[in-house]
Design brief:
alpha/beta, TIM Barrel, eight-stranded parallel beta sheet, four-stranded antiparallel beta sheet, about 20% strand, binds zinc ion
């Protein structure tokens, strides 16, 4: 009996230890500093074997995890892809809806595909990705993941990673907040991330760590839930080193695909009408995709895509 009483707290403690990867991360926080190679550190944390930094290449927007604690210099403003996009997003900070980067001026004719994965009890629309994959694979996709979607769709996440690993998808992970708060009937200025008492840092950092736990790299893009924000919230997201990503072509709202558009649909089972529009558009433009007259654009297509200001 005594032994059992002693064992129970031990077993409970063991059960409470999070999965490998998450267990060892402490002190996750925002930082801002330049490495000697010109990359910008925007997160820092400590694992069992030492410190880590999440860094972005300001020219290419490629993100990486760096071990150790290199000397960080104060960031200096420069004419980089990252700074141009942040400046463009800052110019579009007004209003309650669709702040941030909505449009680019890409060097190739085409548009960026973004798929929001807001919390949903429905499965991922896998057939959409299979249908859209061009002959010249991989298909570049920007996936806006909410933490609550990730928590309930591990099979779908594994499927997406499998498509990526097989060379059929080129995924850029975009943060869409952990909880994606929404309450029907509340005015927009008190809804989504503008709901009082929302902890923005927790909303951002939890999703990033969910991705890191899977061995994935969060990009520097952030999509506001419901596309709802305030100028102050845009500033706070920018201060966390991120670029708010709006949309100029929400297909379920009859907005058109044009070159340079950030195309928005939901692949979480909740917006079949948007996916039908996208599939129809894609079928009509298959010949253009084949000849290179049209491209679905990837992360590298943001390089040089936004002259300041656009
Ligand atoms: Zn959403």
């Amino acid at each position: 009996m005594h032994r059992l009483r002693w064992l129970c707290p031990v077993l409970l403690a063991l059960l409470l230890i999070p999965a490998a990867g998450a267990a060892n991360r402490t002190g996750y926080r925002a930082v801002s500093g330049l490495l000697s190679d010109g990359r910008l550190a925007f997160r820092a944390w400590t694992e069992a074997d030492g410190p880590r930094l999440l860094v972005v290449d300001p020219a290419t927007l490629e993100v990486a995890v760096v071990s150790g604690l290199p000397v960080l210099e104060p960031p200096v403003p420069g004419d980089t892809t990252l700074e141009r996009l942040r400046a463009a997003a800052r110019l579009r900070r007004g209003g309650l809806q669709n702040a941030g980067l909505r449009l680019g001026a890409p060097l190739r004719t085409g548009a960026w595909l973004t798929f929001d994965l807001c919390p949903s009890s429905r499965p991922l629309d896998r057939s959409l990705f299979i249908d859209l994959e061009p002959d010249s694979r991989p298909l570049p996709v920007f996936l806006e993941v909410s933490g609550r979607w990730m928590a309930t769709h591990s099979d779908d996440l594994a499927w997406l990673e499998g498509e990526r690993d097989a060379g059929r998808l080129n995924i850029t992970w975009v943060n869409h907040s952990e909880n994606h708060f929404y309450r029907p009937g509340l005015p927009l200025d008190k809804n989504f991330l503008l709901m009082p008492d929302t902890d923005l840092e927790a909303e951002v950092f939890t999703v990033e760590q969910r991705l890191l736990d899977r061995g994935e790299l969060p990009s520097v893009f952030f999509r506001f839930p419901g596309l709802v924000s305030s100028p102050e919230l845009v500033d706070r997201v920018l201060a966390l080193g991120l670029i708010p990503l709006g949309s100029s072509a929400w297909l379920a709202k009859q907005q058109n695909v044009k070159t340079g558009a950030v195309v928005l649909t939901h692949a979480n089972g909740n917006e079949p009408e948007g996916l039908e529009v996208l599939e129809r558009w894609d079928r009509r433009h298959r010949p253009d995709l084949a000849t290179g007259a049209w491209h679905w654009l990837g992360l590298s297509d943001w390089i040089g895509a936004a002259p300041p200001p656009y």
